[in-house]
Amino acid sequence: LHYTAEKKDVEIVEFLLKVEPNHFITDKNGRTPLHWAAFEGYEEIVKNLVENKKDINLVEFINNNKETALYEAVWNGYMKIVKFLYDHGAKINHKNITGWKPLHFASISCQVEV
Protein backbone atom coordinates (compact mmCIF):
# COMPACT_ATOMS: atom_id res chain seq x y z
CA LEU A 1 0.00 0.00 0.00
CA HIS A 2 2.90 2.38 0.75
CA TYR A 3 4.54 1.71 -2.60
CA THR A 4 1.36 2.15 -4.62
CA ALA A 5 0.39 5.31 -2.72
CA GLU A 6 3.84 6.73 -3.41
CA LYS A 7 3.76 5.75 -7.10
CA LYS A 8 0.23 7.05 -7.84
CA ASP A 9 -1.25 3.70 -8.82
CA VAL A 10 -4.89 4.51 -8.07
CA GLU A 11 -6.31 1.20 -9.30
CA ILE A 12 -3.99 -0.90 -7.13
CA VAL A 13 -4.57 1.38 -4.12
CA GLU A 14 -8.33 0.87 -4.48
CA PHE A 15 -7.83 -2.89 -4.71
CA LEU A 16 -5.52 -3.02 -1.70
CA LEU A 17 -7.95 -0.95 0.36
CA LYS A 18 -10.48 -3.71 -0.19
CA VAL A 19 -8.19 -6.56 0.85
CA GLU A 20 -5.91 -4.79 3.37
CA PRO A 21 -8.00 -2.46 5.49
CA ASN A 22 -5.14 -1.45 7.81
CA HIS A 23 -4.49 2.16 6.82
CA PHE A 24 -2.17 2.65 9.79
CA ILE A 25 0.74 0.52 8.57
CA THR A 26 3.88 2.64 8.76
CA ASP A 27 7.29 2.67 7.15
CA LYS A 28 10.55 3.05 9.11
CA ASN A 29 9.87 6.78 9.54
CA GLY A 30 6.36 6.23 10.86
CA ARG A 31 4.71 7.44 7.65
CA THR A 32 1.44 5.93 6.53
CA PRO A 33 0.35 5.62 2.90
CA LEU A 34 -1.63 8.84 3.53
CA HIS A 35 1.59 10.67 4.43
CA TRP A 36 3.19 9.50 1.18
CA ALA A 37 0.21 10.33 -1.02
CA ALA A 38 0.01 13.81 0.54
CA PHE A 39 3.77 14.31 0.07
CA GLU A 40 3.59 13.33 -3.60
CA GLY A 41 0.45 15.40 -4.26
CA TYR A 42 -1.76 12.50 -5.29
CA GLU A 43 -5.19 14.00 -4.61
CA GLU A 44 -7.22 11.02 -5.73
CA ILE A 45 -5.25 8.61 -3.56
CA VAL A 46 -5.48 10.94 -0.54
CA LYS A 47 -9.25 11.07 -1.01
CA ASN A 48 -9.50 7.29 -1.43
CA LEU A 49 -7.50 6.63 1.73
CA VAL A 50 -9.40 9.12 3.89
CA GLU A 51 -12.88 8.41 2.58
CA ASN A 52 -12.38 4.65 2.67
CA LYS A 53 -11.30 4.73 6.32
CA LYS A 54 -13.64 7.47 7.58
CA ASP A 55 -11.56 7.69 10.74
CA ILE A 56 -10.32 11.05 12.00
CA ASN A 57 -7.37 9.24 13.57
CA LEU A 58 -5.95 8.52 10.10
CA VAL A 59 -5.88 12.23 9.21
CA GLU A 60 -4.30 13.01 12.59
CA PHE A 61 -1.88 10.05 12.62
CA ILE A 62 1.64 11.28 13.36
CA ASN A 63 4.94 9.97 12.02
CA ASN A 64 8.19 9.70 14.00
CA ASN A 65 8.61 13.49 13.78
CA LYS A 66 5.07 13.97 15.13
CA GLU A 67 3.92 15.25 11.73
CA THR A 68 0.57 14.50 10.16
CA ALA A 69 -0.10 14.13 6.45
CA LEU A 70 -1.03 17.83 6.48
CA TYR A 71 2.65 18.71 6.98
CA GLU A 72 3.55 16.70 3.86
CA ALA A 73 0.99 18.51 1.70
CA VAL A 74 1.86 21.93 3.13
CA TRP A 75 5.61 21.45 2.54
CA ASN A 76 5.03 20.86 -1.16
CA GLY A 77 2.24 23.41 -1.60
CA TYR A 78 -0.55 21.02 -2.54
CA MET A 79 -3.35 23.40 -1.65
CA LYS A 80 -6.21 21.09 -2.70
CA ILE A 81 -4.87 18.34 -0.45
CA VAL A 82 -4.28 20.80 2.40
CA LYS A 83 -7.90 21.96 2.16
CA PHE A 84 -9.21 18.40 1.87
CA LEU A 85 -7.29 17.25 4.95
CA TYR A 86 -8.38 20.34 6.89
CA ASP A 87 -12.01 19.70 5.89
CA HIS A 88 -11.58 16.13 7.19
CA GLY A 89 -10.28 17.10 10.61
CA ALA A 90 -6.58 17.93 10.21
CA LYS A 91 -5.52 20.34 12.94
CA ILE A 92 -3.57 23.36 11.74
CA ASN A 93 -2.21 24.13 15.23
CA HIS A 94 -0.62 20.71 15.76
CA LYS A 95 3.09 20.95 16.69
CA ASN A 96 5.71 18.52 15.43
CA ILE A 97 8.70 17.22 17.41
CA THR A 98 10.54 20.56 17.06
CA GLY A 99 7.46 22.61 17.99
CA TRP A 100 6.72 23.72 14.45
CA LYS A 101 3.21 23.97 13.07
CA PRO A 102 2.16 23.48 9.44
CA LEU A 103 2.29 27.28 9.00
CA HIS A 104 6.02 27.19 9.76
CA PHE A 105 6.46 24.58 7.03
CA ALA A 106 4.53 26.74 4.57
CA SER A 107 6.74 29.70 5.42
CA ILE A 108 10.14 28.00 5.11
CA SER A 109 9.15 26.19 1.91
CA CYS A 110 7.83 29.45 0.38
CA GLN A 111 4.30 28.12 -0.02
CA VAL A 112 2.59 31.52 0.05
CA GLU A 113 -0.80 30.23 -1.11
CA VAL A 114 -0.90 27.70 1.72
Give a written overview of the molecule:
This is Ankyrin repeats protein. The chain is mostly helical. It is 54% helix and 0% strand. The protein has helices spanning 2-6, 10-19, 33-40, 43-53, 56-59, 69-76, 79-87, 102-108.
Q: Rg from C-alpha positions?
A: 13 Å
**Helix percentage:** 40-55%
Q: Oligomer, anyone?
A: single chain
Number of helices: 8
Mean pLDDT: 88
CATH topology: the name is Serine Threonine Protein Phosphatase 5, Tetratricopeptide repeat
Q: Unreliable stretches, pLDDT < 50, 5 or more residues?
A: none
**Global structural class:** mainly alpha
The ordered H/E elements are: HHHHHHHH
Instruction: Note the overall shape.
Output: globular
Broad CATH class: Mainly Alpha
What is the percentage of strand-forming residues?
under 5%
Q: Please give the alpha-carbon distance between the first and last residues.
A: 28 Å
